[in-house]
Sequence to fold (206 residues):
Amino acid sequence: MEIEVKIRIPNSKSCKTLISLLSPFHLRTHNQHNNFFDGAAGELSGSRAVLRIRFYNDPENPKCVISLKAKAILENGVSRVEEDEEEIDPEIGRKCVSDPTRLKDLVGSSRIMTRVKDEFFGNGDELGFVGLGGFKNLRNVYEWKGLMIELDETSFEFGTLYEIECESSEPEKAKGLIEEFLKENGVEYSYSVASKFAIFRSGKLP
Fold:
């Protein structure tokens, strides 16, 4: 179970203010490209599951991660979602993005894709996949007061979302610290009401 605090920042000006305030605590920046897939007959979405291939386009450490998320709940700025992920060869990932039907070739060699087959497709079902598209995300990572803070600038075709994410086993405590910091520095915010994937699928910012 992945538990994260998710707080929305209203605009680029506020985001730049946060980047400046958090600069002493900066660890790294990731250029991510997220791509999503479903079964050809909606087998995953029908069970509230999401299959994603994420590329980290970092010059010094390029990598590709495939993940399966399911049963997401987002309430009062705290997200809880079942998540499993593993790293795969970036070249294989690119081939699957170009031709989603190749995802079935990973069954057996990939724990994630073997789970997808076993959990979402019946024995007699044809194993087919379609691409849903995706979006890019610029993520700055900070270590602040014992928390790993991720500040995201997510670029959709219909607009840009600015959001703080913080994974924590004590989400209410983490949320309180972050809110106090934002208030002290006059940064407007609100609790996130939808995941990035849900926003992407809706075609508009919340």
About this structure: The chain has a mean pLDDT of 96. Residues 3 and 170 are 9 Å apart (CA to CA).
